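ok so for the tutorial part 2 we go from a plain amino acid sequence to predicted structure tokens. step 1 is just haveing the sequence, like this:
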Amino acid sequence: GSNVSLNDGSLVSAMGGENSSGGTVTIEAKDLESDRSAIISAALGGFFDGFVNGEDPDLTDILSGDSASQSVSVDINNSTILGGDIEITAQQDDRFGFAKEANASVRIKDSDISGDTISISAITDTSLLSEGELIEGIDNDLISNVLSGLAATPFVSFSKAKSQVIIEGDTNISATGDISITSKSTAEAKLNSPSLFVASLGFADSTVEATTRVEGNTVISTEGDLAITAETENIVDVTVETSADNRPLAISYADANTRSITSATTADTVQITADNVALSADAIVKVSVDAISTGLGASSMAIAVANSDVTTDTVAILSGTVN
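step 2 — the prediction. this is what the tokens look like for a chain of 323 residues:
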């Protein structure tokens, strides 16, 4: 992972002279996988991808996915940041394997941040491909669906994405322009299980969480707009199919667990001054679980069972003093 810390009176300043505007300040912790890497891994396998990148591939790692702890963070404590446009970002994605996990957090405590515009964000993504159009004229969802059967094991797919922005203590954030504070997570678990001799099964588990909290004695003031948001998207697609040709029994079983937590809140001790204030928590859930079983021949019987458990928790609370 990647971690950035500012502590104990640290000062980051991009201020010019008396008659000049401040410069851009970028503080970021990022751990990203390219679409190229994801496609090579999915289409040609972890061994090939390892050789392309000059790595010594390990079969255990390839079969288990990336088992290392996945996280990036930006921690700002008792520090001062001055500039023009200020961007503070923690971002991670984990796109290949059947056990994908991404975690990103931004924590700001007892600090002063002042600029023209300020953006504070934590972003995570475990979908196979990033947003946008990878190949002109072809939707990324189509590419993802073609490769999803290769990007996981035939039988299980696990995905977890968590992002959080926490602003607390005696923190002061001020801007002449807009301020945005956001957490955004996308989790995707897809599999297409092949038919075995008499049975086929598939299981997917996807958890997504985005939390934006402003608390303590935090003071936020801007001459522009303030947006405090949390966004999640949880995508689960499981297809299990079995066909029995003159065999006594064909069984298909598909199971999926989908959990989403989305929260954007401000505490009642927070003070906000802005031209417009928008606080929102938005959750998107897309679930498709199919079990298909076909019996061919006079002596065949087919059984198909599909089970889906979906849990969502969405909270948006604007408290404190708002002017």
